[in-house]
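Entry 14. Ran structure prediction on the chain below.
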Amino acid sequence: MLNDLISIIIPVYNVEEYLDECIESVIIQSYKNIEVILVDDGSTDLSGRKCDYWGQQDSRIRVLHKSNGGLADARNAGVKIAKGKYIGFVDSDDLIDPDMYKELLEAIYETKTKMAMCSFITNKERETYPVKNANGYIIPGKELANTIVLHKNKEMTFSVWKCLYHRDLVVNKEFPEGRLFEDVVYNISTIYDLDYVAYIPKALYFYRIREESITNKALSLKAVEDVVAYNQGLLDFYNSRGTKKEIKNFRIYSLYEILLYNIISRNNNEIREAIKYTNDYIVRNHFSIKDTNFNIKTIVKFLFEIKIMNKALMKG
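Output, structure tokens:
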């Protein structure tokens, strides 16, 4: 019978409207041997008090109050005090299925791996999403990392919140602070080094889309800067660890993405300065026409994505 302690780290910042529902979804897990670490990242609303309330209601909940340092800093602080053999992350405005950690841990044991990942849907999709009872399977770490980086499967993403890690994988790593996409290089570098990762093709994590959330705001200068930063981080990673084919494939994808943001920046006066970030990235990494595989299909897709992004920016 499985009885390993799982530490679930929940960074909290000004989410008083959603926090109770999030915590409730975690403490009713069918797998009971958990510790829940609420990291109050200097909240200015009632979130901090709510954390203390929940800490009094359930002995498995630990509360850490700290000055505001951002999502990555809060996650790092939680990892430092985590006692579990396995560690997971949940964002404080999201929800999880009652069996999420049970199924992830069972997948790890059944496949003798050190990490498991499930699928996810948005909170609004929960009522209409068909329940999947598909069996899990294992994926070689390098194959999964490349699948995520090249966006070959929309259910497999960079995000850490749908994953369960053996503590050895995360206790000596830190999320890069001050970045919007802080878990991109963190997760890819972790996955890439594993022989296999257990994957459960079931939506056990429910991602809430909020208008005011940091990943759902209209495109900003900072967001473009962070996109360039994570592309640079991934390119540096592949240059140092990847095969020639992996490097080539990522350079093609990265140039495609950077050019997309370059064109969007030119069409938006509020972020026109971001052109410098994208141009510098292209020049710094010696990109040329040889790094593209643009054909008619690719160009049509490219133009379609520009149209979609422009519409999104106009709404924002």
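The chain has two domains: 6-207, 221-315. Will compare against last week's run tomorrow.
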